[in-house]
Amino acid sequence: MDITAFEKTLRARRAEIVGDLARIEDALDDTPPKDWEDRASERQGDEVLEALGHAEQAELTRIDAALDRIAKGIYGTCLKCGDPIAEARLKAVPTAPLCATCAAG
Question: Which residues form the Zinc finger DksA/TraR C4-type domain (predicted)?
Answer without folding.
Answer: 73-104
